[in-house]
From TrEMBL:
Organism in which the protein naturally occurs: Halapricum hydrolyticum
Top EC class, one word: ligase
Record InterPro entries: RtcB (IPR001233), RtcB-like_sf (IPR036025)
Free-text cofactor note: Binds 2 manganese ions per subunit.
Native organism taxonomy: Archaea, Methanobacteriati, Methanobacteriota, Stenosarchaea group, Halobacteria
Function: Essential for tRNA splicing and maturation. Acts by directly joining spliced tRNA halves to mature-sized tRNAs. Joins RNA with 2',3'-cyclic-phosphate or 3'-phosphate ends to RNA with 5'-hydroxy ends.
Residues involved in GMP binding: 207-211, 333-334, 382-385, 389, 408-411, 485
UniProt keyword list: GTP-binding, Ligase, Manganese, Metal-binding, Nucleotide-binding
A Pfam family: RtcB
Protein name listed in UniProt: tRNA-splicing ligase RtcB
Assembly: Monomer.
Binding site residues for Mn(2+) 2: H239, H333
Length: 486
C-alpha cells in the first residue's frame, strides 16, 4: 500500500485521491483527506492534518473526519473539514463551524451576454462598488431596529420577502428556502444583535466579494440546461456571511462552553475544538443561535442581490425581470445541521459540521427544492480573481463518501500577512485589468494583495478531484469580468 509521510503523520492511500490517517490512540475514527498528490503536498504544509486528526477525538464522531481537496489550517478544525457527529450521544462544536456562520455563496443568472458588458466593465464595477456596502465595520443596505433584527434572525428570507427585498422564486432557490426553523433569536446576545443591526446587506472584508462573471465552459449540457446556464452568459457570484453578528455568536458560545464543559474540553487535544455535549442546555442554545445567524446571513446575501438587481437596472436601462436576473442557488459553507445519514446500514441523525465545505446532495434527497429534485443540488465553487469559478451538482457518491459534501473554493496557500509581503495591491489590479480584462475595485490595495490569484490553490485541480470522486460533478465554469471587495 502506498503511503505519504507528512512530518509525524503517515497517510495510507485507500484509492486514487483518497488518503487515510489510520485510527490510533484516542482517535474515535480514522481521518480521510480527499486530494491529488500535489494538493496533498500543499495541505501538509501547515497544521491541517494535525487539526484533522484532532477532530477525530470529538465524542460521537461517525465513520471518519474528512478534509476536502481545498483544505487548509483553520481555528481548531481545519477549513475544508467535515464531521458527522451523533446528535444524541455526541456533541456540537462552534469551532467546527467557524466564526463566520453561514459564510456562503449565491449565483445570480442573467440573460445578458459578455458582449453586452464588454467595454462597460469600469462603469459597472464603479456602480456596484458605490451601491453595495463593503469593508470593515458598519453600514449596510438596510439599517433596522432591534425588532427588525429579531425578525430577521427568526424568519430569514421570509422577512426579506415580506419587506419587498425578495420574490417567492428567490426563496425556492435557496438552501432550506432561506430559513432555519430551529432559529432562536433569544439565544443570540444583545451584543451580537447590535453588531448586526447596521450590517444587513454588506459584503464585509477579507475574502468576501461580489463578482460579475461570464460562463466560459459547459461540461454537462443536460444539467446546465436544467440550471439555466449557457456559454457566454453573464452571471453574478456573491460571497459573504453573517458579518459581526455571526462572529459574536461564535465568540459568546466558545467562551461559555469552555467554562461550562471543562471536563470534555480537557479530553480534547485542542481547546479550540471546545464542544457542548449533545442534549445539554448549551448545545441546544448554540444550535438555536447558530441557526438564527444562518438566517441573518441568508438575508444579508439577499439584500446584496436586491441592490445588485437595482444597479443592473440603472446601468443597462431595463428592469431586472427583463434581464431575467434569477437566483440559481444559495449554498452555505460554514454550518452544522441536523441531517439523517446512513451509518452501518441504519439511518442516524447527525450534527453534520461543514467548515469551509459545501453541501452536495444528489438527486432524490428530500431537502432539495422541487426545481432540482431530479437533477441534484447546485454547488458553487469560487476560484480566485484571476481564475475561474465552477458550478457543480451534487454527486452520487457524496452521501457515502463525505456526508453529502464537497469543497467550497480554491483554498488558501498563503496567509494574509505573507500575501501582503509578496504582492502589491495596485500591481495586482493593473495586471488583472491589462492582461486578463478583469476589473477589480476594493477599499484598499492591501485587500487586493491578500486576495491575489497566487494566494490560492489551483481551483481546477480541486474541482477535478471532486468530479473524479463523484461527490460533486462539473457542470459549468465561469471567468471573472469585474469584482468588488471590502
Amino acid at each position: 500500500m502506498k503511503t505519504y509521510e507528512a512530518g509525524n503523520i503517515t497517510l495510507q492511500r485507500v484509492r486514487e485521491y483518497v488518503w487515510e490517517i489510520p485510527r490510533e490512540g484516542e482517535m474515535n475514527v480514522p481521518a480521510r483527506v480527499l486530494a491529488s498528490e500535489s494538493l496533498l503536498e500543499e495541505i501538509s504544509d501547515d497544521k491541517t492534518l494535525e487539526q484533522l486528526k484532532n477532530t477525530t477525538h470529538l465524542p460521537g464522531i461517525q465513520k471518519y473526519a474528512v478534509c476536502m481537496p481545498d483544505g487548509h489550517q483553520g481555528y481548531g478544525f481545519p477549513v475544508g473539514g467535515v464531521a458527522g457527529i451523533d446528535s444524541e450521544n455526541g456533541c456540537i462544536s462552534p469551532g467546527a463551524v467557524g466564526y463566520d456562520i453561514n459564510c456562503g455563496v449565491r449565483l445570480l443568472k442573467t440573460n445578458l451576454r459578455y458582449e453586452d458588458v464588454r467595454g462597460r466593465e469600469e462603469e459597472l464595477v464603479d456602480a456596484l462598488f458605490d451601491a453595495i456596502p463593503s469593508g470593515l465595520g458598519g453600514g449596510g443596505v438596510f439599517e433596522g431596529t432591534r425588532g427588525d433584527i429579531e425578525a430577521i434572525l427568526e424568519d430569514g428570507m421570509e422577512w426579506a420577502l415580506e419587506q419587498g427585498y425578495a420574490v417567492p422564486d428567490d426563496l425556492e432557490h435557496c438552501e432550506d428556502e432561506g430559513k432555519r426553523p430551529e432559529a432562536d433569536a433569544g439565544a443570540v446576545s444583545q451584543k451580537a444583535k447590535d453588531r448586526g443591526k447596521e450590517q444587513v446587506g454588506s459584503l464585509g472584508s477579507g475574502n468576501h466579494f461580489l463578482e460579475v462573471q461570464r460562463v466560459t465552459d459547459i461540461f454537462r449540457e443536460d444539467v446546465a440546461a436544467e440550471f439555466g446556464l449557457r456559454e457566454d452568459q453573464i452571471v453574478v457570484l456573491i460571497h459573504c456571511g453573517s458579518r459581526g453578528l455571526g462572529h459574536q455568536v461564535c465568540t459568546d458560545y466558545l467562551r461559555e462552553i469552555e467554562q461550562t464543559h471543562q471536563g470534555l474540553l480537557n479530553r480534547l487535544p485542542d481547546k479550540e475544538l471546545a464542544a457542548a455535549p449533545a442534549g445539554s442546555q448549551l448545545a441546544e442554545e448554540y444550535y438555536g443561535a447558530m441557526c438564527a445567524a444562518i438566517n441573518f446571513a441568508w438575508v444579508n446575501r439577499q439584500l446584496i442581490m436586491h441592490r445588485t438587481r437595482e444597479v443592473f437596472e440603472d446601468v443597462f436601462d431595463r428592469s431586472w425581470e427583463e434581464m431575467e436576473m434569477e437566483l440559481l442557488y444559495d449554498v452555505a459553507h460554514n454550518i452544522a445541521k441536523k441531517e439523517v445519514h446512513e451509518i452501518n446500514g441504519e439511518d442516524q441523525e447527525l450534527y453534520v459540521h461543514r467548515k469551509g465545505a459545501t453541501r452536495a446532495f444528489p438527486a432524490g434527497r428530500p431537502e432539495l427544492p422541487p426545481a432540482y429534485a431530479d437533477v441534484g443540488q447546485p454547488i458553487l465553487i469560487p476560484g480566485s480573481m484571476g481564475a475561474g469559478s465552477y458550478v457543480l451538482r451534487g454527486g452520487e457518491q457524496s452521501l457515502a463518501e463525505t456526508f453529502g459534501s464537497t469543497a467550497h473554493g480554491a483554498g488558501r496557500l498563503m496567509s494574509r500577512t505573507e500575501a501582503k509581503n509578496t504582492y502589491w495591491g495596485e500591481d495586482v489590479q493593473d495586471e488583472l485589468r491589462d492582461q486578463q480584462h478583469v476589473y477589480v475595485k476594493a477599499n484598499s490595495g492591501a485587500t487586493v494583495a491578500e486576495e491575489a490569484p497566487g494566494v490560492y490553490k489551483d481551483v481546477d485541480e480541486v474541482v477535478n478531484v471532486s468530479d473524479a470522486l463523484g461527490i460533486g460533478d462539473k457542470v459549468a465554469r465561469t471567468y471573472p469580468v469585474c469584482n468588488i471587495k471590502g
